[in-house]
Amino acid sequence: MKTIGLILLFFILSVETYADTHYSSGSGNWSVQTWKDACGGSSIGAAPAAGDFVVICGTGSHSVVVDLAVATLLGGITIQNGATLTITNANIATANFLNIANNGFITIDAGGTFNLQGRSATKLHNVSMGTGCTLTVNGTLDMVDGFSDIYVGAGSFFNIGSGASFTWNPATNDITLFTNTTENFYSTTSPYSTIIIKYCSMLQLLLLKTLQEISAI
Fold first, then answer.
1. Which residues form the domain of 131?
2. How are beta strands 134-137 and 98-108 bridged, if at all?
3. Is 55 inside any structural domain?
4. Which of 1, 22, 45, 187 has its CA 20 to 30 A from that of 163?
C-alpha cells in the first residue's frame, strides 16, 4: 500500500508540473487566439497557463498584438522566423503585459520581430522577466518608442546573435536589461549584429560604459 501511495503521489506531482506549448492560431490580438497544439495544428482553445510556453508561428507570418495584461507567469516565448509580436502604446492599460517565470526565456528567432512600442510613464514594465532568465535576439528587438521596457531579474542573460538587430532608447527605457544580465553580443564575424542606441546623451553613454565595465569585473 505504501508503494502504491508513493506512485500515486509521484503521478499527481507530475501532472501538476506538466507544461504545455501553445502555438498562435493566426494574426490578430492575443485575446482572440484559439491556441493550437502546433503551428497549423488543431485548436486547443485554452489560454496558456502558468509555466506554459508560447510560440508565435512563422508559418503564415503571424503578427500577434498583445492587447491585454497576461498575468500568467509563462515559461517562455518563442517568436519564429517571419512572425511578429507587438505591444503598442494604445494597448497599455496596466503594468507588466507579459510575465516570464524565473529561469524562463524569450527567444526571437532569425527573421522574427518583437516590437515594444511604448507605454504610459505611470505604468511599470511592458515585459517582466524573473531571475535566471534568458533573452535571446537572433532577429529584431525594437524598443525605440517612449517608455518601452523589459525588466530582467538578476542572474539573467541577454544574447544578441549574429545578424540580429536591437534598437533601444535609454532616455525613456529601463536599463536593467544591462545591469541585471550577462551580455553575449556575437559580432566577430559577418553577418554582424546591429545595436542602435537612440537619443542618448554622453552622460548616459558613460553610465552604460561604466556599468558594462563593472559587470565584467
1. 19-216
2. parallel
3. yes
4. 22
